[in-house]
Amino acid sequence: MSTRPVHLTDSPTVRLRQHFSQPTLDSIAAARTCYSPRIIAANEVSREQVERIGRTTYQGGHHSVYQHQFFEFELEGVSTVLTHDVLHNHPFYNTSQQSQRYVDQTRRGAVMPPLEGPRAMRMYEDAVSASWDAYATLTETLTEDLMGRFAASSMDPTSRRRRERDVRKKAMEAARYALVIGCHTTLIYTIDGVTLWRLYRLRGLSWEAERVVSMMVDAVRGVDTRFFDWVDADMKARPLPPENTLEGRLNEEYGTQADLEAFRKSFDESLGGYRSKLIDWTADAEERLAEALCYQLSLPPDSLTKEEAVAHLLDPSKNPYLLESLNLAMMSPAMRTMSHVHFTFNKRISHVADCQDQRHRMVPGSRPLSRDIDSPNPDYVTPLLIEVNSEAWKLYEDWMGEAWERKNQLEAEGVPPEHAVYVLPRAVAVRLVESGTLLHLFSKFFNRTCLRTQEELWIATVQERNQIAEVQPLIGERLGPPCHVRNAEAGEIPEEWGRVNLCNQGKLYCGKPVWSLWPAVREEDILEVI
Q: Mind listing the pLDDT tens digit for each residue in 49-59?
């Protein structure tokens, strides 16, 4: 057992970093402006108007006036369980979160659930500490292996230090799979007023959300005591403790261990060897795309062929927006026609990869809460970098078995599963169904098929792209990383559009001419990028 100290917290740090000066008054002024011949200022709102208009707009569901208010929080000492299950599991937020891919996790820290008794707390602390031991050992083992492969003997000391820094980051990317999902993370998190209301109403989805969201609400109350008056009045009439949430009721009625085991077996068989399996799509997607583009241009529906429509939208020699660093697709009336084409996937990825995947918030997934991925037997994903290293693989396999045993021991001690799962490793498998329009999948594939992407997501996304290409080849051949999309094989990019860099990574260029290889890029290629 490690003797290094472990930093466990049962209360996070929540700071309101930025906010509008008068959230309630500004919202009521916006509401009044809707029915006024002029703009109403916040200082023109009376106390009587706050009470009357505030109540009627809330009860009537006219909540858009409260979306003008934004609250920027600093969150420290929260877990990746909270970010995965609550904070990032919806589309209405912005976040900047510490990356465990690039920040060495030298400080051993995790959230402490509300455990009862010193024995359970000691068992929990030992499990957290052991995960950091596994992380440290895997990081060193993989770094040594990668340095042997990537560092030339002729390197000068400065170049060698730079190379060691780069390979260590790649080693940490795989080693973080060993850390517990209850590990600490820090982030800057920005949401509008209505989203904060929603989080407040549904904070009973988890015990940690109950604490953190309540602290966020208290911070807002500290600058504006009235902003939650109508939500509070509603909550007094219809409280939503965990057992009264829809998810809590469904879990109570259907969530038996036997059902979960049967689900896992059935789901994995349905994947047919894929990490992400295409299960549904718009059958005539290319024709529908051509028709929608015609309608957008007020043309008869047969004015464009499907080949012409796909080229206008996805060929950079015809669509200059594809050459921009700024994603203009949602603002483009023509490109929004891609919203009418849909694809759906069944997916099995790790908790750590899913935390990245859900950041593509316009490609929503139906994923279980972390408390519902509990199982008595190890159920996890292994990074390719560890699979190809026999020493690291043995260390990893041993730790996975030990991690589940420690979790099972906590449950045998009487710790509820929703608390015990906090010691499961970030490698634990998450099974979900995910759907997206071509508009948003194009953006996701543009980012996640680059060889700089996190390995597991790269593999899953390439599989998704290849399956789309099988059923919709005109669309599929245009999906891929920036260097492929911008290669413009169908035609030359007009000179007046300026010089275009195929790779958008600058100094982080992977070193491989992916634009000329695509789609014949192998899983092994990503192992050769540091």
A: 999 999 999 99
